[in-house]
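seq:
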Amino acid sequence: MPNSARTFRLQALVLRHLDWGEADRLITLFSREEGKRRAVAKGVRKLRSRKSGHLEPFAQVNLLLARGKDLPIITQVETMESFSALREDLHLLGYASYIVELVDRFTIEEEPNPEVYQLIVHTFQRLSQGAEADFEARYFDLQFLNAMGFKPELTECVVCREKIQPEDQYFSFELGGVVCPLCRQKVPTATAISVETLKYLRHLQRSTYTEARKARIPAILLAEMESILQRYYTHVLERRLNTPQFIRSIKTLNQQTQNSDGERD
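struct:
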């Protein structure tokens, strides 16, 4: 039997890996029990390694780890869900990588957050099953910000604290929420946000997934939601995310391919 003082188990998602030494890999995990952890997979780059296929990005795994001098060593790994569709489709790869980037940027090591862990698992499951990727990303955004303590204020003005009225408003990235038209002059950096976009942001923020999915959000409003949230992330993180540009490039490529196919027809 394993010595509990020297070994421990984790249920985790593989966020990314990095070649380490001649045959090893440094694996970044997000676990249910301990949050983000790094661990070493010994010999995983060797052709005969039994662990390599289980430690691909986005996979959900059960792990047995041995405590090492600096980092724990993965001694056993079993795949729960491989989420292979997320690696095989370039479009889905972009969205899964977006989620991983957010989690990696916002979290610190060994800080458990079971709510975020389950949110990632459920989002990966739905993306793998063909759910609308843009909707899934925006629902993830709102729920993730809630769980990480950066919930944007969408129901009252962050300046005067009056309830927001059903009209076009403004959003302050610095103050983390909506600014009413009367207070706009006090926050010159606030950007305009349409009443329709604000309505859907509120809906995704306060609803369960089943309730949220009943909404049919037009593509133009999903795009405005994305713009607002990406600028909010940039302010919070003090740097831009890398993956949104990758997603946009894939969308452009897909559109060009569709146009080309249409011209041939």
